[in-house]
Amino acid sequence: VSVADGSLDVFASVAAGGRQDWAPLSAVGSPGLSTHEPVEGRLPTGSGEVALSKSTAERLELDLGDSVNLSADLWMLAGPDDEEPPLLEDDLALVGVVEDPSVLTGGGTVALVTPDQRDAWVRAAGHDVGYHQLLVRAHDGTHPEDAAAAVGAALPHDVVQTGEEYAQETLSAITGQGYMLTAVVLAFGALAMIVAAIVITNTFQVIVAQRTHVLALLRAVGATRGQIRRSVLTEALLLGVLSGVAGLLLGVGLAMAALWVLGGADLPFPLPDSVRITPAVVLVPVITGALVTWLAALSPAHAATSVSPLAALRPPQPPDPRRSSRVRLAASLVLLVGGGLMVAAAPLLAANEGIDEETAMLGGLALGIVGGVVSFAGVMLGMVFVVPTVVRLLGGAGARLGGGTTARIATVNAVRNPRRTAATATALVIGVTLVTLMSTGAVSTRASLDSMLRAQYPVDMSVESTFWDPDTGQNTALTPSQVEAVRDAEGVVDVAEVSATTLPLSDGGPSDRYLEIPVTVVDRAAVADIMRDPTLFDGLSDTTVVAGPLWARDMTVEEGDQLTLGDGVVVTVVVADLGSEAYASTELAERLGQDVATTQLWARLQDAGSATTIRDVQDRLTELAAGDPDASTPLVTGPAAEREIFEQVVNTLLAIVVGLLAVAVVIALIGVANTLSLSVIERRRESALLRAMGLTRGQLRAMLAVEGVILALGGVCVGAVLGLVYGWAGTAVILGRSGDLSLAVPWGHLAAILGVAVLAGLAASVLPARSAVRTPPVAALAAE
Predict the structure, then answer these.
(1) How many helices and strands in the chain, by DSSP H and E?
(2) I want to staple 499 with a disulfide (CB 3.0 to 4.6 A). Which of 42, 319, 521, 572 is the partner?
(3) Is the confidence at residue 677, as pLDDT, over 70?
(4) Cα–Cα distances in Å, from 126 out to 69, 72, 88, 122, 250?
């Protein structure tokens, strides 16, 4: 061990010039362990010095050198016999300003002092110095795991983690398992390769179709089937290697560009200076690209060997529209129904109260994943039946909406070769299914998360008095000017006044002694429009107390138990999802003769910009306290800001996932263009005949455009339906046991996918249409 720092959890009041703010108190880290860099001034180096976060310094209007009063109740040092916790209070000089900590990993503010200063306060309070956590830096050249093992041997009863383990644990707390995020990214890379393989297969089918006469002539002059096959596979291997190298260079270039752009942004975390180029980074994409391309070309290579020498002496033949077998249909239905039943049963298993939560969750996920794979395999096997049907329906709708003969011909052409149509749509269905699945899961998770947070945090913002009245043993009331300041703040929709107080509870003994139980007194009608979930107070009346499960546990009471308050006032306990708090009605307080003062404010905020509103309220209350030496700055907490943080995490992960899946969708849409190209080649004489019968160039272009659009829309429709079903099932498995499941439809993403499909279908038809209209009808009809 090179150096070790101890840390204590202390929440302090910071005041200056009549202004007050709140911040966690931390000690400056040793070299190699410091996490704060000054943006102005320096970090404290001696006693009597402090550094504050930028927002706190601005709120208190402090400059370097100004005096700051810091005070805190050392609750963590209070023993069981202490009536009150030790209090620290000192005047310090501001020597530095640091950036605000990230709200994802800290409280958003911080006050820094030297370790010696902090330890001196602890000793002055009459306690030995002790720590909640140790941060350790190993000697240079020492492996972190070796250092962790040595520390663990010295402290066998404590939890010892390496920095990497701690980082993964923190990441897991914010985004879920860190390795899962990496696995998801690699899985989408594999998905892109699968989609690319389908498109590559179609591409080589186009190439083989274009070279039918050339291949037949080669056979006629002596080329063997093996030579023809090797020529196609060698071409595929060369293309795969070259494309892999190009993709490697492009990927590294984009990563470097991203680091350069992000390096110029003011991010609250460090970034690497460059991309690490390792042998795996070079070899894996090149080998993968070559292997995938070579494997995708096997089927077209086999088709190339079936070209007979006589094919060089006759016109090209139309494709064989062979129908799929009944065996394929039966197998598809069996897989679809069996997998669908497993997907439907997965949420039921996850929500089974007779099984412990972890086993039920893992079992539900396993069953859902297996069912999803099986049912999706059934859909893929039956695509040759599904896609042509969907395309016919879309084409019929287009013809009725004004497409006329052009749309009808395009529809017939699109389903002429069901196998190729299904293969084209399959690549698109895979990408769209996963995009819709992730979008559905994200919006459903956001809706469910909002329901859970509404229960955990019944209001968007709470403003609580921090002055303590020793005579009453309660917080002092908020002033009318403080209440008005909160009401007038921009972004505050409505405000309700509540009171944190205590009620007298009879212990039921012969002495009829009273105990004080903490409750929050609310006017149910006044808070109905404030609370995100007003049903939490449905059981509140002048004869009940509504309590959270943690409060009920601490008071050793259960739902329906009765308590005797004051002079024989009996109330019934109603347990609701309210955490560690208990609530009483104003009518009950009046029955008990309680003089209730406004010690808290609950506020309903606009849905957007909650964090900005909370900062504005803090600034307003700080200014008010600065003008009144007898007033204190209330403590402002913002559950709404926490909701925003969770939503930002969900939105960020969704953006990453959708961005990765968009690559697969783009690759799949290239396949639509390849299919149209092959269709144009096969219908060369047919198109010329239509032109000779009066079909104009514009109508031919429109016919191919309609064909491209309905092919793309067909894949999108099938993928969207599958994605919705799988997304809902996955959300139900993960969140069903929470009791706050809300299934939603990502209408915005679906509309965007449909729009992209239409535009891509139109774009995919441009080059094939250009090739079709440039060939004169006479030349196309001439015998070859």
Answers:
(1) 25, 20
(2) 521
(3) yes
(4) 21, 15, 11, 7, 64
Helices (H), 309-457: 326-350, 357-381, 383-398, 404-414, 418-456
DSSP 542: T
From residue 307, give the alpha-carbon distance in Å to each of 201, 236, 262, 301, 586: 17, 19, 55, 11, 90
- The H-assigned helical ranges of 415-511 are 418-456, 480-488
Strand partners, 501: 519
> Among 494, 445, 458, 482, which residue's Cα sits nearest to residue 640?
458
**Burial status of residue 732 (CB atoms within 10 A of its CB: 0-12, 13-18, 19 or more):** buried
Instruction: Indicate the burial class of 224 (C-beta count within 10 angstroms; 0-12, 13-18, 19 or more).
Output: exposed
What six digits make up the tokens of 51? Answer: 């550094």
C-alpha torsion sign, points 34, 36, 40, 43: negative
**% helix / strand / coil in the chain, to the nearest 5?**
55, 15, 30
User: For position 529, what pLDDT does the model report?
Assistant: 85
Give residue for tokens 């991203």: 258
For 775, other C-beta atoms within 10 Å of its C-beta total 16
Instruction: Return d(Cα 543, Cα 522) in angstroms, integer.
Output: 14
Report strand pairing: 3-7 vs 133-137.
antiparallel
Is the distance from CB of 379 to CB of 722 less than 8 angstroms? yes
Spell 401-427 as b/e; 16+ CB within 10 A means b: eebeebbbbbbebbbbbbbbbbbbbbb
Residues 99-134 pLDDT 10s: 887 655 555 688 999 999 988 888 887 778 888 889
Tokens representing 270? Answer: 């460090």
β-strand 600-605 against 461-464: which pairing, if any?
Answer: antiparallel
Confidence at residue 113, expressed as pLDDT on a 0 to 100 scale: 92
pLDDT in tens, 249-276: 988 898 888 888 877 766 655 677 788 8
